Amino acid sequence: MTRIQPVAPKDAGLLIKVAYKFASRRFGAVPEPFTVLANHRKLFVACARHEMAAEKASKVLPANVRELAVFRVAWTVGCSWCVDFGTMLQRLDGLDIERLQKIGDYENSPLYSEDERAAIAYADAVTATPGTVTDEQVADLERRFGKDGVVELTYQIGLENMRARMYSALGITEQGFNSGDACRVPWADQAVTGQAGPGA
Predict the structure, then answer these.
(1) Which of 32-41, 135-144, 152-161, 171-180 has the lowest mean pLDDT?
(2) DSSP state letters, the chain
(3) pLDDT greater than 70 at residue 50
(4) Any idea of the CA torsion for 145, 134, 87, 44, to the nearest 10 degrees?
(5) Are the beta carbons of 48 and 17 closer than 8 angstroms?
(6) Are 100 and 90 in contact (CB under 8 A)?
């Protein structure tokens, strides 16, 4: 149960209802963070625009490098929703999700390339409190990915820190996206058809 009551479709304005339908069609269910954030309409809109723009702009890095760094942040912070959703996104991108079980030992696992190890180590350094990023680390990443790649990697790691910490604070936990049974939001199916679901 989330710490802030989700906004059900029957209580949502037209814009939120349309966003729910779009998200449900894209992901198979309405992501629960959307339903909690919908309590603040202006932030909901700002977040949706930002997420779409960031996704569209983040095309410099190879998907495997970017997604592994983001996943590592979620795993480190302990956001089960982000881990669940991030695993689904990697699966949909055709990436190997089985190796995510070994991310705790990425430094020694043969399942990760040197570029991936460098990105994961950077995610750890950025996420640490206080941060532990070094000049040498950034220089190494620049050699690997270019200046724009380092900026993209840093931006995505910072963005995931925001998501993971916010969702954890609000009590948003795994929803079943990776299992194909995303059903925590009781009215997820009805959000597509516009009907009110149980308890909605």
Answers:
(1) 171-180
(2) --SSPPPPGGGS-HHHHHHHHHHHHHHSS--HHHHHHTTSHHHHHHHHHHHHHHHHH--SS-HHHHHHHHHHHHHHHT-HHHHHHHHHHHHHTT---GGGGGGGGTTT-TTS-HHHHHHHHHHHHHHSSS----HHHHHHHHHHHHHHHHHHHHHHHHHHHHHHHHHHHTT----STTTT---SSTTHHHHHHT---TT-
(3) yes
(4) -100
(5) no
(6) yes
pLDDT band at 185 (very low <50, low <70, confident <90, very high): low
Quickly count: other Cβ atoms within 10 Å of residue 148's Cβ.
12
Q: Are 73 and 157 in contact (CB under 8 A)?
A: yes
- Tell me the whole-structure pTM to 2 decimals: 0.90
Residue entry with tokens 């983001």: 70
Task: Determine the CATH number of domain 9-193.
Answer: 1.20.1290.10
Whole-angstrom Cα distance, residue 47 to residue 21?
A: 17
